[in-house]
Write a structure and sequence with these properties.
heterodimer; A: 516 residues; alpha/beta; Rossmann fold; six-stranded mixed β-sheet; 18 helices; globular; disordered C terminus; B: 363 residues
Chain lengths: 516, 363
C-alpha cells in the first residue's frame, strides 16, 4: 500500500535545520501536495528522497524495504523520478535525445535510435501530446519542456514522480492540462508528489496535503475536502494572512508614462508589434501573458536594455531614450525579472548590491570616490525598511534567501526617488509572507502617486494587483481592460490567443486613457 | 569572517604544498627538513640575501598585480608574459636611446613609455575579445609567443649591441637605471613602485566608482548592464591597466637588474604571476606578501643551489602546488574536515573530564 516511507528524517545545512525529524509517507497511486513556504524544507526533503542530499538521520523505506539512496541514479533505479523547477534539458538536443539520455537502448556499442524513437513515440501517443520527438528542445515552450521532463521520467519507468513547483511558469490552460495529465497518471498507478506553495492547485488535485513549516512537519493528513485555502495558508505560515490583498487605486492622476507604437524585431522575429499604452500617476498597469510573448522585450525596451526599431517612450512629457543608465537617471526604477542573474552580484556584499544603479548618486559617491559610510547607512536603511533578514550588511548576497534577495532588490528600487517602477515577476518563487510584504510595498509606492508597470507570468498576481491590465500575446496587446470587467478565465483565453479584443476598441481605450 | 576564511585557505594551501613537496623531496632521496632549513637559512642568512628576497619578489609582484586586477573583472590575462616582454623591450630602447634627460625624468619617462606599450597590447587583446568574441586566453597565449620572438629577433638583429657575442641590446644609460636601495644588491626602487601600485589598486578597487564598476562587471556582467554599467568599457580599462602594470614590471627588470634587453631574460615571470595572484586570493595588498613569500623561496633556493647539488626545481614545484590547492579549495576543505573529524573523535574525553570539575563546586 505504502510505496515510500521516510522516517525521522533530519538534515542540517550550515546555520539552518532544513528538515527536522520529519515523517513522510506516500501511497500507491496517491497524489500528495507538499505545501510550505520557501525555506520550509519541502525541496530538501524531496532532494533527500531523490538522492541529491543525504539525510543526517532517519531511514527511507521503499515498499517496506529499507533503502539507501546515495545518488539520483539509485533513486531512478527504484523508479523515483524528479522534475526540477529549473528544467534539466539540453536545449540543443532533440526531444528524443533528451528523453533517452543515460538510458539509451543500445545495439552493440551504438545507440539503437530506431528502437528509441519507437518507444518515445509510443509514450507521446499514450498521453496524446502534440510533440514531434525530433524537435529541438530550444524550440519548445515552457509548458512543452515540462511535458518532455515528465516523459523523461516516465521513460525511466517512474513509479514515483516528484514535481518541484510545476505550475510556476505555466499559463492557466497549461496548468489545467498538467493537472489532467497527472490525474491520468494516477489512474495508471503512479504516485505523485507536487512541491508547491500554490493553494488553488493543491485544492484541485491533491488526495492528501502535507504541510511543512521551517523544517518541521505541521500536518500530514489534510484532505482537500475538509479544508479551505485560508486554513492551509494559516498552517503554512503559522498566522492569519489576508488572502485577498486587492487594493484599488484611490487617486489616479494625469498620465505619467506614455508608450507609443513600440515595435521590435529580433533575429527576424517580430517580438513587439505596435505596442501603445499609458500609465497614470498612482496607477498600476499589469501586463499578463504567457512567458515568451514579448514581455522580456517590452521590459528591455522600458529599461533601456534594448533599442526599439520604432516608437517612443515619454515620461512626464519628456522623451526618454538611451541606455539603462539614462533610464535610471530619468526616473525609472527597475526590478528585473530574474533576480539572481540580472538583479544581484551574488558574491559581493549587500552594500555593493544596494547601490547598484545608484553608484553615481551623490549619496553613494562624490568625484568618483565611494562614500563608504553613507553607503553602509543606506544599506542598513534598506534592510530595516524592507525587513531583509540578514546578520549585517557585509554578508554576501548569496547568503540571503530568495525572498530576502528580492526584498533587497525592491528596497534598492524604491528607496531612491523615482517616477515609474518597472517590475517583473516580483514574487516568483517567493513564499506567501514575503509576497504579501512585497505587494504591500508596491501598493505603497503607487499610493504616493507614482506609476507602476507590473509584468508577471502569474495571472492571479496581475489580476489582483493591477488597476488596469493589458494582455500580451505574440508581441501584441490583445486586451486592455480593468480587472473587474473580465473574469480571470476570460483573460486566460486572451493570453492564449484564443480571443482578441477588436482593434478599434483597443485604440479607443488607449486614446481615452491618454486624454484623461 | 570572509576575509579570514580566504586567508586560511591561502595559508593552508601553502602548507599543503610544502608537505607535498617535502614528500617529493623525500622520495627523491633527500631530507626535506634539511632542504627547508637550508632554504630558510639561505634566504635570511645575510643582509644581501634579504635584499635578494625583495629583488626576486619585485617582478613577481608586478605580474601578480597585473593578473589579479584583470581577474577582478573576470578577465584571464595569461598574456602578462607578453606585456612584460614588451615593457622590458620598450624600457631597453627608451633607456638606451633617449639622451640628455636628468635621472629622475629619464627613469619616469622610460617606465611610462614601457607601461603604455603594455597598455597597447592589453587594448589589442581586449579589442579582439570584445569585437570578435575571441577567447582572451587563446589570444594571450598567441601574444606571448609573438612577443617572445619579436624580442628575440630585435635582440639578435636590428637592436643587437655592437660587438656583443650574445643576443642582447645596448646597455641602458646610467640616467635610466633605477636607484638601488641597498648598494651592490639588485634591490631597487622598483620594489617600492610595485608596492605603491598595489596600494593604489586596492584603493581603486575598494574606494572608487571605477573599482566598484570593475567588481560589478567581474561578478555579474548582466546585472551590471541591467543597471547601466557597461562591461565592455570596463574590460578595456581593466585589460589596459593590467597590461600597463605588467609592462612596468618588465621595464623594472630592464632598468633595475638586466640593464638591457636580453633574449629570454624576462620569460617565466608572467606565468608565475598567476601563482602569486592566486596565493593572494587576487587581493592587491595580498600580492605584496605572496610575492615576497615566493621571493623567500627563490632567494633561499638560489643559496641551496650554490652550496649543494639539490635541484633548484623543487621550489617551482612548491609554487605550482600552491596554485593547484588554491584553485581547488575543496581539497583543502576536505583535508580540513578529515583532520577536524579525527580531532573531534579524539576530543570527547575532554568534556567528560571537565564534568566532574563542574560538579565539584556544587558538592
Amino acid at each position: 500500500m505504502q510505496i515510500i516511507a521516510m522516517q525521522n528524517i533530519c538534515k542540517t545545512f550550515p546555520g539552518t535545520k532544513a528538515v527536522d525529524h520529519v515523517n513522510f509517507s506516500l501511497g500507491e497511486g496517491e497524489i500528495i501536495s507538499l505545501l510550505g513556504e520557501n525555506g520550509a524544507g519541502k525541496t530538501t526533503l524531496m532532494n533527500i528522497l531523490y538522492g541529491i542530499h543525504q539525510p543526517d538521520e532517519g531511514e527511507i523505506f521503499f515498499r517496506g524495504e529499507r533503502v539507501q539512496i546515495k545518488r539520483p541514479t539509485d533513486a531512478i533505479d527504484l523508479g523515483i523520478c524528479m522534475v526540477h523547477q529549473h528544467f534539466m534539458l539540453a536545449p540543443a538536443f532533440s526531444i528524443l535525445d533528451n528523453i533517452i539520455v543515460g538510458y539509451e537502448p543500445k545495439r552493440g556499442m551504438f545507440v539503437d535510435r530506431r528502437k528509441a524513437l519507437k518507444e518515445v513515440q509510443a509514450l507521446i501517443d499514450r498521453f496524446g501530446f502534440q510533440l514531434n520527438p525530433c524537435t529541438k528542445v530550444s524550440e519548445l515552450s515552457v509548458g512543452e519542456q515540462q511535458r518532455v521532463e515528465i516523459l523523461k521520467a516516465l521513460y525511466r519507468n517512474a513509479k514515483v514522480l516528484i514535481l518541484d513547483e510545476p505550475t510556476a511558469v505555466l499559463a492557466p490552460k497549461e496548468v489545467d492540462d498538467l493537472l489532467k495529465m497527472l490525474q491520468s497518471l494516477r489512474a495508471g498507478g503512479t504516485s505523485i508528489v507536487i512541491i508547491t506553495h500554490k493553494l488553488k492547485e493543491t485544492m484541485t488535485i491533491a488526495d492528501r496535503i502535507v504541510v511543512l513549516r521551517s523544517g518541521k512537519l505541521i500536518c500530514d493528513d489534510v484532505r482537500p475536502a475538509n479544508t479551505n485555502e485560508s486554513e492551509l495558508a494559516r498552517l503554512m505560515i503559522g498566522r492569519e494572512i489576508n488572502m485577498d490583498t486587492r487594493r484599488p487605486s484611490k487617486c489616479a492622476g494625469d498620465v505619467a508614462l506614455c508608450v507609443r507604437n513600440l515595435s521590435l524585431t529580433e533575429n527576424g522575429i517580430c517580438k513587439l508589434r505596435n505596442i501603445s499604452f499609458s500609465i497614470r500617476k498612482g496607477e498600476i498597469l499589469g501586463v499578463a501573458g504567457v512567458e515568451g510573448n514579448g514581455q522580456t522585450q517590452l521590459l528591455e525596451a522600458l529599461t533601456g536594455l534594448t533599442q526599439v526599431d520604432a516608437g517612443e517612450i515619454i515620461l512626464n512629457d519628456k522623451r526618454i531614450s538611451g541606455d539603462a543608465y539614462s533610464f535610471i537617471q530619468n526616473g525609472f526604477a527597475h526590478v528585473p525579472e530574474d533576480r539572481t542573474t540580472m538583479g544581484l552580484m551574488l558574491n559581493l556584499p549587500l552594500t555593493d548590491n544596494a547601490i547598484l544603479g545608484h553608484h553615481t548618486q551623490p549619496f553613494a559617491s562624490r568625484k568618483g570616490l565611494l562614500r563608504k559610510q553613507e553607503i553602509t547607512a543606506f544599506t542598513n536603511h534598506c534592510i530595516e525598511k524592507f525587513q531583509v533578514k540578514t546578520p549585517n550588511c557585509s554578508v554576501l548576497a548569496r547568503a540571503l534567501s530568495g525572498g530576502n534577495q528580492q526584498k533587497l532588490i525592491m528596497a534598492r528600487a524604491l528607496m531612491v526617488e523615482s517616477e515609474v517602477l518597472v517590475v517583473a515577476q516580483p514574487v516568483r518563487g517567493i513564499d506567501v509572507s514575503a509576497t504579501e510584504y512585497i505587494h504591500d510595498q508596491i501598493f505603497n509606492y503607487r499610493d504616493k502617486g507614482k506609476s507602476v508597470l507590473l509584468v508577471s507570468a502569474d495571472l492571479d498576481e496581475v489580476y489582483q494587483m493591477s488597476d488596469r491590465l493589458v494582455v500580451l500575446y505574440n508581441g501584441e496587446i490583445t486586451l486592455e481592460c480593468k480587472p473587474s470587467d473580465y473574469a480571470k478565465e476570460e483573460i486566460g483565453c486572451y493570453m492564449l490567443g484564443v480571443r482578441k479584443q477588436c482593434p478599434s476598441k483597443n485604440e479607443e481605450d488607449g486614446a481615452a486613457a491618454v486624454q484623461k | 569572517m570572509r576575509a579570514l576564511n580566504k586567508f586560511k585557505i591561502s595559508v593552508l594551501s601553502l602548507f599543503a604544498a610544502l608537505v607535498i613537496v617535502a614528500i617529493v623531496i623525500w622520495i627523491s632521496g633527500y631530507s626535506p627538513f634539511d632542504i627547508y632549513a637550508r632554504i630558510f637559512k639561505g634566504a635570511f642568512g645575510s643582509k644581501m640575501s634579504i635584499a635578494l628576497i625583495f629583488s626576486e619578489a619585485t617582478p613577481l609582484m608586478f605580474s601578480g598585480l597585473a593578473f589579479a586586477i584583470a581577474f577582478k573583472a573576470r578577465i584571464i590575462n595569461v598574456g602578462v608574459e607578453s606585456q612584460m616582454i614588451m615593457g622590458a623591450l620598450v624600457g631597453a630602447i627608451a633607456g638606451a636611446y633617449i639622451h640628455g634627460l636628468p635621472h629622475m625624468a629619464h627613469v619616469t619617462l622610460t617606465l611610462l613609455l614601457a607601461g603604455m606599450s603594455g597598455m597597447l597590447i592589453g587594448f589589442f587583446i581586449c579589442f579582439l575579445k570584445v569585437r570578435f568574441h575571441a577567447q582572451e586566453v587563446v589570444i594571450c597565449i598567441m601574444m606571448n609567443s609573438i612577443l617572445l620572438y619579436v624580442g628575440s629577433y630585435l635582440a639578435n638583429g636590428p637592436l643587437k649591441a655592437v660587438g656583443a657575442g650574445v643576443a642582447q641590446t645596448e646597455t641602458i644609460l646610467e640616467t635610466a637605471k633605477l636607484t638601488k636601495l641597498i648598494p651592490k644588491s639588485q634591490l631597487t626602487t622598483g620594489f617600492l613602485i610595485g608596492a605603491a601600485i598595489a596600494i593604489a589598486l586596492a584603493f581603486i578597487l575598494e574606494r572608487t566608482v571605477l573599482g566598484y564598476k570593475i567588481r560589478v562587471a567581474g561578478n555579474n556582467r548582466i546585472a551590471g548592464e541591467t543597471y547601466g554599467i557597461q562591461a565592455t568599457k570596463l574590460y578595456y580599462i581593466t585589460f589596459m591597466l593590467s597590461g600597463f602594470i605588467a609592462a612596468i614590471g618588465g621595464s623594472v627588470l630592464t632598468q633595475g637588474v638586466i640593464m638591457r634587453f636580453s633574449d629570454g631574460a624576462v620569460s617565466g615571470y608572467g606565468f608565475r604571476g598567476i601563482s602569486v595572484a592566486a596565493l593572494a586570493m587576487y587581493n592587491p595588498l595580498g600580492v605584496i606578501f605572496s610575492s615576497t613569500l615566493f621571493g623567500i623561496l627563490n632567494a633561499g633556493s638560489q643559496a641551496v643551489n650554490r652550496t649543494t647539488t639539490i635541484p633548484y626545481e623543487f621550489v617551482d614545484v612548491i609554487q605550482v602546488m600552491v596554485v593547484v590547492f588554491i584553485s581547488a579549495p575543496q581539497i583543502i576543505q576536505a583535508v580540513e574536515k578529515f583532520f577536524g573529524d579525527r580531532l573531534k573523535k579524539a576530543l570527547p574525553k575532554r568534556p567528560a573530564a571537565a564534568k566532574p570539575d563542574q560538579e565539584l563546586p556544587r558538592a
